Amino acid sequence: MIGANVNGIRVEDLFQCYDKYNFLYQEKKEKMQYLFPMIKANWDMALSMPWENFLLLTYSRPEKDLFASVSAWRSTLRSYCIQHMVSNQAENTRLILLHFLNILENDITEKNAIQVYYQPKTRFANNMFSHLHKAAGTEHSHLSPYSYLSYPVKPVPLHWDRVFAEELNKTNQKGIIDFIKREKGDFYSWVQDFDSDDFTLSTLDKEYSKYGLTRTRQVVAYKDESHKILGVSVINRASTGLNFSLLENSCEIILDSQHPIWLLNEVIKSILYHISNLYRQSDLDSVPLLVAPEYEGLIQAYGGKSMRTYNYFTCDNSVFEEWRSYLKSELKEVTEHLKIKNLESKAS
């Protein structure tokens, strides 16, 4: 077990480590610059929360220039969003994740789950989460790619008035959830708490508000004249910067894959018009958008800027033991590799 600290580092020291070990690369720092004072203040408040809602693990040995960190925040009542896996040594990356899994075992939430967004070019994360998805199957996990775009907060002229927006409520819940399940699968819907009556995550928001923070959500369906759902937007709202890519305030767009592209183009216009007006009230100067890669061009046509590609992985805690075994196997390989390198270094 690595001697990691739980929610015990000062925000200033944490951000200095992020900077030192190039987690806060220049492009990200420039994009976050106008929000940085607010982000620091929000992290200060977040670190005062119980670890069940906000968890930061850090391992630091300055005398040996070693640092590792991982954080997670309660995204839905059923799940943590894991993020910011930072380490300057492969061995400590595996160790701190093992420590993280041990802590999650003590969570009071039954059948809790994790969510994570990672770039597929990150080999360690891609290999690990692909393995877990294959081992768990669709009953206990979900894996899908996203294009991540930044859309300027501006109104989009509506040329087609036959699409109307309808917020998720108890009356229309079944139809909207059936649509989401068809497009994203049952497990995804379960992790997002869509099957509960708390569509806006108000119960979770009450926990966040005790510490000066917020976490809410709005789910909106876009329907045609016959009330058929053409698309859905999942609009996440939270205290700015809980995730440095602003995923806590992202809007996921789910489109009906059975419809032709020309029709989906009209739906996209309606969605962009709707969310632009909503995000005008936020602290952000652009909307963080998540959409299936095949629809990225539709948003680019209206001024969306492509940022990066993410893989999204989620699983429940029935997968944790397989995850632990994977990390232990990885750790053994890394340790053996380091031993060989040390022997070669001494021999030379």
Automatic annotation (TrEMBL):
Record-given protein name:
Uncharacterized protein
List the source organism: Fulvivirga imtechensis AK7
